[in-house]
Amino acid sequence: MSDEQKDPSSEDVEVPVTEEAVPVEEAAPVAAPESEPMPIAPVEVPVARSGEQAPGLFLAYNPPEVSDDAPPRRRRGVGVDPAEALRKWQPITSLGRAVLSGQIVTMEQALRSGMPIREVQVIDALLPNLEEEVITVNMIQRMTDSGRRVRFNVMACVGNRDGYVGLAIAKGKEVAGTIRKAIDAAKLNIISVQRGNGSWESSVGPGTSIPFKVTGRAGSTRLTLMPAAAGKGLVVGQTGKKILELAGISDILSRSKGQTRTTINYALATYNALIEMNKTRVSDDQKNRLYMVRGRILE
C-alpha cells in the first residue's frame, strides 16, 4: 500500500509545467516589435485637389510660388487677405457649406442651386480672379450741435472680365474701411451677364457684344445699350465703360437721357440694364441664332 501511495506522489512531485512555463515568459518581448511601426508610420496630410474643390480654395491651400522680383499684389481697403480668410473660413450658410465640402465648385452651379449668396468667401472661392474698381468716392458733411460730422459714400464694382459683374454702394466714417465694405457688398451683388452677337453689321459667329437692345434706369437717368459690330468698341460714357469692361463686353452702342452727369445714377443705370437683359425671355432658336452665352465662356 505504501508503494502504491508513493507512485502518485512521485508523479505529483514532477513539475514539468513549471519548467515549460519559463520560455513563455521569454516569449513576451516578441510582441514588442509589433507596436514599433505605429509611431514610425508617416501621417498623410490631405492635399487639396483642383478637381474636388473650388478654384479659390485650391489656390488658398496651394499658393503659387512667387519670385522675389515680382511686385506685391495690390489690394484696396483694409482687412485680411482673401486667401487667408478662406483658410480660416467657417461657413454658416447652406451654400457656404456646400462650397467648402466640394459639392459646388463653379459659379454656374451656385446660381443654379437657387440658394442666396450671403458670404463673401463664397465668391472668393468660386471666382478668385475678380478685379476691383472704385467708381466714385463722395464726402458727405453734416452740421450737428456737436460740430461737423464727415462721412464717406463709396461706389465700387467687381468683375472677372468674363461674364460676371457686381456693383454696390457703402457708407462709413473712414475711406479705407468704406472701400473694403463697398467691395464686399459688390461681391454679394454679383450677376451673370448675357453676351452675344446681335448686330446686323457683324458677321456670323460668336461675339462679345450684347444680343439685343435693352434699357436701364436709375433716378432720372435712362441708358439704352445696343449691340455693336466687332471692333466698334465701347461707345458709352466713362463710368459705364468701367462696368462693361469688368463684365466682359467689348463692343456696344448706347443712348442716354436725363442727368447723365450724375456718376452714381449713370453707373446704376448701366448695371440695371444688364439685369434687365437677364430677365428677358429668349427661345432656344434665338439663342443659337444670336450666339448667346450667359456667364463665362467655357471652352
What is this structure, in a nutshell?
The chain is of the alpha+beta class. 38% of the residues lie in helices and 19% in strands.
Give a written overview of the molecule.
With 299 residues, the protein is of the alpha+beta class. Among the domains are: 59 residues, no CATH class; 101 residues, Ribosomal Protein S5, domain 2 (2-Layer Sandwich). 38% of the residues lie in helices and 19% in strands. It is built from 13 helices and 9 strands. The chain has a 4-stranded antiparallel beta sheet with strand order 1-2-3-4. The longest helix is centred in the C-terminal third of the chain and has 17 residues. The radius of gyration is 34 Å and the shape is globular.
CATH architecture annotation name of the domain at 194-294:
2-Layer Sandwich
Q: Which structural class do you get from the secondary structure elements?
A: alpha+beta
Using the CA coordinates, give the radius of gyration: 34 Å
Strand content: 15-25%
Q: Give a count of the beta strands, DSSP E runs of length 2 or more.
A: 9
- What's the tally of helices? 13
User: Helical percent range?
Assistant: 25-40%
What is the approximate shape? globular
CATH topology of the domain at 194-294: Ribosomal Protein S5, domain 2
Residue-averaged pLDDT, rounded?
81
CATH class of the domain at 194-294: Alpha Beta
Q: Largest sheet, if any?
A: 4 strands, antiparallel
> Element order, helices and strands?
HHHHHHHHHEEEHEEEEHEHHE
- In what order do the strands lie side by side in the largest sheet? 1-2-3-4
**What's the end-to-end separation, in Å?**
107 Å
